[in-house]
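seq as requested:
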Amino acid sequence: INKFYQGSNSKFKDDILKGSASGPLYINTVKMFHQKDCKNFDVFGRVFSGTIHQGQKVRIFGEAY
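struct tokens:
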């Protein structure tokens, strides 16, 4: 996970390292496909921690977050 998470050492980092389905949602997004409205995206990614369900809306934070 150190390759994907560049943040400081914290409880959040420790939790995502455990890879628990009940942990915080952490997804490494690899490809975003915009929808016709160009405001929403379908995203392919790898879930490292947490649980996400089809149709669930999430926000994507960039490196500057």
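Residues 11-18 form the longest helix (8 residues).
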